[in-house]
Amino acid sequence: MSSSRTLSLAGAAAVALALALSTAAPAQAASGRPDAPQEEAFSFAVIGDVPYGSAQFSRFPAMVSELNEQEDLRFVAHVGDIKAGSAQCTDEYFAAIKAQFDRFEAPLVYTPGDNEWVDCHRTNNGSYDPLERLDALRSVFFANPGTTLGANMPVTVPDAALPENVTFGVQRVAFSVLNVQGSNNSLQPWSGLGLTEPTTAQLDEVAARTAADVAQLERTFADATATNARAVVIMTQADMFDPFLLGAGAAEHPELVSGFLPIVEAIAEGSREFGGEVYLFNGDSHVFNDDAPLAAGSPWLAIYGQDEVDNLRRVTVEGAASSNEWLRVSVRSNSAGDENVLSWDRMPYTAS
Questions:
Q1: What pLDDT is attached to residue 17?
Q2: What is the dihedral of CA 113, 114, 117, 119, to 10 degrees?
């Protein structure tokens, strides 16, 4: 989400086996990070909404270097927004960020944010066709589907049309990374191109991507149940439970978040059926937050028309120009039991 926060209104058996293997077996990491024994704990990092602005862009190489010094990280996840909402969406900028992503010594899992394609229609972004910028992102960052950026870690791409959407498993934790966007999942009109309503091409893209997201979530939860996974971890850019949207009237105007409804429904239903711990990590709204967005008493239950979901925990990663931190996520060993599989700490960058 930009800083302006603009609002307007499968053999099934073969598939099951492949998914079970991808979740039950830990992924092999490269660059001096060998696969840990099944019983050992591990850590990964989550960052997002970075770099934001020229000063942070200048510091970004140091940030990457500092994360490279964390030798215990199994992988790093970037949950989108690689530039500020008012910055240009140029090929040169994408190439500069890709060069830094290539420096990561741990595998890097990246899901795009709205700032690098959805909102590129804005005049100050260069008045681009957002769908053209999405194609550009895919050609730059996802040219080798099934592998991560940085060090190579094999991942599964459930839908070839969305190479950015991946799943993988590490020590009985199922990960599902989805392209879900701010700006109401890209349903807001491209006003920078002089449009006041979504175009047919825009709506077609949203429908296809959302259907792929829902199908991936359904497979992730089904596989997690079949393989007795300890937890499911979902990562998106969009904050589908943004407190700002509550203040903007989402309770009275649920159309403000209508683009998220199928995703939230899939997460809620999958969480209930799975029954184990479910974690959602997102960026987008910039301010660190840790909550249970669909627990009893949450206003989001009425907005999304859901019954309560007590096993879903959501974390928003701190980001944007004033941010100087990353999130270390620790995963307990198999022998430690299944309660509170994940925990996290906010880690300040010390590099200048």
A1: 29
A2: -160
